[in-house]
Specification:
- The chain is α/β, with parallel strands linked by helices.
- The chain folds into 2 domains: 110 residues, Rossmann fold (3-Layer(aba) Sandwich); 124 residues, Rossmann fold.
- Helices cover 31% and strands 23% of the residues.
- The strands form 3 sheets. It has a 5-stranded parallel sheet, with helices on both faces. Strands 6-5-4-7-8 form a 5-stranded parallel sheet. A two-stranded antiparallel ribbon has the order 3-9.
- Strand 7, helix 6 and strand 8 form a beta-alpha-beta unit.
- The longest helix has 13 residues.
- The radius of gyration is 20 Å and the shape is elongated.
Length: 246
């Protein structure tokens, strides 16, 4: 079995130091990138319909870079100056670092988790009487609101952007040995664009439990999955699978 071509259903990495570049050179692969979904921002009118007033919230919970972008986009659009006293609760270091695009990091109160909302529990408890805003897309991992409720926080969700299926019609007659997915939305996009998709010899790689479940529900054969014990990343999972199937 020769595996030479991979399509990753995400934008191309900005850095040439991406681990995918390394395995591409090491294993002599052709790796293409194409987002199967994209994000579109909601307008101020949509936010007002949700009866969201940014001035009501002392604390902002940020789960992704998209959440950061659209929170500050809409506060600007609605001419709301975010107070310097606002506290930011970031799901990961990557989100916290990205926040520097909009605020002077050292002058703000920023709390950082280790990729899970549960990591912030002790910090949330320090400000349990305050109000929290959770900027999200139209799709939200149900474990997040459940966890916030379990912490007995006074929080409110604000849908500031939405996930939209990308047009992939130009890929109809293009074949790849491996398709890589990182979200259930990517799986849905595949079948929305290609309702008659047949897997045949194509290998399917999935990252994360919910993506795995979406692929299973779509009756796809899952050949590669991450994270797994000793294999925390998709690039490592791909490298191991391809190397062992030469």
């Amino acid at each position: 079995m020769s595996l030479k071509t991979i399509l990753i259903s995400q934008p191309e990495p900005a850095s040439d130091k991406s681990p995918y570049n390394r395995i591409q050179e090491k294993l002599k692969l052709k790796i293409d990138y194409r987002p199967f979904i994209h994000v579109e921002g909601m307008d101020a009118k949509s936010v007002r319909k949700q009866k969201i007033d940014f001035a009501d919230f002392d604390n902002i919970i940020l789960t992704s870079r998209n959440a950061v972008d659209h929170f500050f986009r809409l506060t600007t659009e609605m001419r709301f100056k975010v107070p310097d006293s606002t506290k930011y609760f970031c799901l990961s270091e990557a989100v916290a670092y990205y926040l520097q695009k909009y605020v002077v990091y050292r002058k703000r109160k920023i709390y950082v988790g280790d990729k899970k909302i549960e990591d912030l529990e002790e910090v949330f408890k320090k400000f349990s009487s305050e109000k929290y805003l959770l900027p999200t897309s139209d799709i939200l991992n149900p474990s997040i609101p459940k966890t916030l409720d379990n912490f007995n926080l006074n929080w409110r969700r604000a849908q500031l952007y939405k996930t939209v299926i990308s047009d992939l019609s130009d890929l109809r007659d293009v074949y790849y040995d491996i398709l890589v997915f990182f979200s259930p939305s990517g799986i849905h996009s595949l079948f929305k664009n290609f309702p008659d998709f047949k897997q045949n010899n194509t290998k399917i790689a999935v990252y994360g439990k919910t993506t795995f479940e979406a692929a299973e529900n779509a009756n796809l054969r899952i050949d590669i999955s991450a994270p797994e014990p000793g294999i925390p990343s998709m690039s490592m999972a791909l490298e191991k699978f391809i190397s062992s199937n030469k």
